[in-house]
Amino acid sequence: MAAADQEPHTRAVRPRSYQDESYLSGFLGTVGDLQKAGILQDVVLEVEDRQFPCHRLVLSAASPYFRAMFTSDMAESRQKTVVLQCLDADMFGEILSYIYSGTLHVSLDKVQPLYQAADLLQLDYVRDTCSSYMYLNMEHSTCVDLYKFADAFSVYMARKRCMQYIHRHFAKVASSEEFCSLSVNQLTEIISHDELDVKEETTVWEAVVRWVQHSREDRTHHLPSILPHIRFNLLTSDDTAAILEHPLVRGDSGSSEVVRNVVQKGNSNIKRRLGMVTSEMAMLYNLERDRLLFMNPREGKYISCSFGPDNIPNAISTTVTSDNNIYILSREPEDHNQLCLFQYNHAENLWEHAGMSSVSRLDPLRRDDMCVDEQLVEVDQVLFYLSLETGADISSLLRMRKYNKHTDQWQECSQLQLHNTLFHIVTVTPSYGPHLYFLSGTEMHCYDPSQDRWYSSSSPMTTAKICSAVAMGTEIFCTDVRFTKTMVFDLMSDSWHWQKLQGWPNPRNLTVGIGSVPRLFVLGNQLYIHVEVTEYDTNTEEQLWDSLLYMYDRSADAWRDLKAPFPDKEYTALAHTPRCYIGRGPMVPVAHIYIPHLKGAQEHITEVSTS
Description:
Layout: H1 3-6, H2 21-37, E1 43-47, E2 50-54, H3 56-62, H4 64-70, E3 81-83, H5 89-101, H6 111-121, H7 124-136, H8 143-153, H9 156-168, H10 170-174, H11 184-191, H12 202-214, H13 216-219, H14 223-226, H15 237-244, H16 247-250, H17 253-265, H18 274-277, E4 279-286, E5 291-296, E6 301-306, E7 315-320, E8 326-331, E9 338-345, E10 350-353, E11 359-360, E12 371-379, E13 382-390, E14 396-404, E15 409-412, E16 416-418, E17 424-428, E18 436-440, E19 443-448, E20 453-456, E21 466-472, E22 475-480, E23 486-490, E24 495-496, E25 511-512, E26 519-523, E27 526-537, E28 542-553, E29 558-561, E30 572-573, E31 590-593, E32 602-605
Parallel strand pairs: 1-3
Antiparallel strand pairs: 1-2, 4-5, 4-30, 4-31, 5-6, 6-32, 7-8, 8-9, 9-10, 9-11, 12-13, 13-14, 14-15, 14-16, 17-18, 18-19, 19-20, 21-22, 22-23, 23-24, 25-27, 26-27, 27-28, 28-29
Helix pairs in contact: 3-4, 5-6, 6-7, 7-9, 8-9
């Protein structure tokens, strides 16, 4: 045997890379300790006469602004003390704390100056976090101030959210002192929109009067440029006459002439405001009779609308988008592996193809007893198709695609591996931020579209039998399959409320229908629940079905039966029955509906007290 053949066999050894996680996590802590101890600092930054000793290397690594300052031929690169202009000393202290610790502390009173400092120092994370914080903390008392700031600094996401809030709550916002601080351009932009949720155009006129009278001498001359944005054609002749006689108009010839010209010229094409032609309504579906029920319990409206058997697509899932489009996800007639979208035509009261490319059904994993639940949701004006694949061992995989309207294509998103999905529900938090929440078993997961990442809540759920969930403000309300309790998850603290809401009073000892689930929904910032129940009739020895509607009275911590005059007994959510476990249509779509366009509808007007 040759010598070479006698050598022992050696395995090829490939190089590998190793990552020390403890080093990565500890490095920033060590740098922070050096800063606190004042060790190895080689530059002093001076802001508003306050001095901040720092490390050039750390500053350069954190900020392109400092990197350019210390690595170029600028004079600052050689100076021991560098004076920084246009910065607030307290905010710079917050910025420096973030640079050395990676932790950012944001509050409503400092989010704006913090954003300005981050914008100057080119700290993208701080700037984006401040923008998100403004978006998340929109309310009546802050929306105008945040809108002005977002407008000045072109913070697109926060500005858009502010505009949506002002449109939706215009009457309340217009009565605030902050509204009078708007510039003339900001005022005219707001009142020119179709989306103002006002019942009468006089509300817009009264808002303009308040704005002008707040500083009459300085603002009266703006009236001729503001008045064309008021839709005089939507006013009665008496309202127009009263405006012409108003001291602001009568005392200014230019304003009076504008009003008269607009009224005399007329414009029948001027759109009515959103609040004039729509009513926010929830939609339920009668499976047996191809009938939709549009309802607004607060206004006492229950409108039953019949469709032909081929007029409503076979819905897998339904969603309502932020721009008030109602979509149904349905199977293609010729190919059930392809899903298409239908859109509700408000003006014609019919369903038509949405004109979007079909989405291929995600191939299920090859496991025995596999079942698939599919849903359609919108997050921040983007449609997402979700496919949850669950095996007999209750382990699941949640896969998603999102629709790109620019390319008319569906794109893959991050997956989520789950362990217990016997009960599951998806909800979106439009008021709190552009995120999607998935409740599964005893876990809650959050999807951030901007990062295409899933995050898990550290707070465990108190029950594994969640069947319906809905977001309202900064809270998510959930109920179990038998409506015995309703729980609240606080998004701000990322925790479940220990105190549960009261459950179903159920004085008649009814039973939630087999194969049915209670369905929570929010309408007019009020929490409701629809329950399909059965009751045993001792005379006929049959199970009788009924639909009940409850409104939650938070002050009394009680669900109140609205005794809703449902024209039919059996209703379900507008969605196909999934093939696995619970989840039978847990979502009740809520949209602004153009009531005059509901052709052939029979309107049931029954006053339902909500006091």
